[in-house]
Write a structure and sequence with these properties.
Blueprint lengths: L2 H34 L5 H5 L2 E2 L4 E2 L2 H32 L4 H14 L3 H15 L6 H25 L3 H9 L4 H29 L3 H6 L19 H10 L6 H31 L4
Antiparallel strand pairs: 1-2
């Protein structure tokens, strides 16, 4: 077999693999969209559930998901980007930093239910936060942190070294170089990683199951120490725990959650493309 034939064979194998991965995802999205679109209405999106959650809407769950996503961002983004800056720009290449990076990669692969159990023990019980938005946001923040650190560090390391060398040679301090030269050029990758991490957090059920989610709470939370409904757990409840639940409401709830996650992914893609087009290298 010639090199050209090998290249074509590899190209076909990659194409077939991509199709086998993409087609089932598209079919699932279309299936949820077709079955759930009939439930989408202003009442469904703006009213609390009624009649044992078999009627009404999902507004408390939507608002709870938004609050949890915002709390996750507050908990994970500053710490994650700060850690990435330290690992990429200040920490030396030694055994300790290699162990830290390995630990971060391993933490990113831990099942979400483990983070939920940790949040239950650390935040709900030990720190006495109770099942609350604060405990849930911190738990989701810990789960998102490895993703933010890894993607931000890779984005920072991808900035050419010449940018740093020229800035330092002109008299700028290391922090000024990072602030005005490195971070602006690494921003597309950092934002992409952050938004994708938040998208994952918005769709998680296991961590909030132990730390914040309420089975049925039509009232909106008044503070960060209150419980809240959330779309992933609400979907689990109405699909498994509520007898006589109309399928249309189940698929409508799944569609809203899917649209939130897909919207975050779309925002990340658009921002990355826009910033890369305006990048100077």
């Amino acid at each position: 077999m010639t090199r050209q034939q090998t290249h074509k064979l590899a190209q076909w194998l990659v194409t077939i693999t991509a199709i086998l991965v993409i087609v089932p995802i598209v079919l699932v999205i279309l299936f949820v969209f077709i079955n759930g679109m009939g439930a989408i209405s202003w009442e469904f999106l703006s009213q609390p559930p009624r009649e044992g959650m078999t009627q009404g809407g999902i507004w408390p769950a939507v608002w709870g998901t938004v609050l949890l996503t915002f709390g996750t961002a507050v908990a994970a983004i500053p710490l994650g980007i700060g850690a990435a800056i330290y690992l990429a720009e200040y920490a030396g290449d030694n055994r300790l930093t290699r162990m830290v990076r390995l630990a971060i990669v391993n933490l990113a692969g831990i099942p979400s239910i483990v983070y939920g159990l940790f949040g239950l023990g650390a935040f709900v019980l030990f720190l006495n936060m109770g099942t609350s938005l604060l405990a849930g946001s911190l738990t989701l923040g810990l789960m998102t942190l490895p993703v933010v650190i890894s993607t931000a560090e890779e984005a920072i390391l991808a900035v050419p070294q010449q940018f740093r060398t020229v800035s330092l040679s002109l008299g700028a301090t290391r922090w000024q170089t990072i602030r005005y030269q490195v971070l602006p050029h690494a921003l597309p990758g950092i934002i992409t990683g952050v938004i994708l991490g938040l998208g994952r957090a918005a769709g998680e059920t296991a961590p909030i199951l132990f730390t914040v989610a309420a089975f049925y709470l039509p009232e909106l939370p008044d503070s960060i120490f209150d419980q809240s409904m959330a779309l992933p757990y609400h979907l689990y409840v109405i699909a498994t725990q509520v007898p006589g639940m109309p399928l249309q409401i189940q698929y409508g709830t799944a569609l809203v959650l899917l649209l939130i996650v897909l919207s975050l992914t779309l925002v990340a893609t658009v921002l990355r493309s826009y910033m890369r087009r305006n990048r100077e290298w």
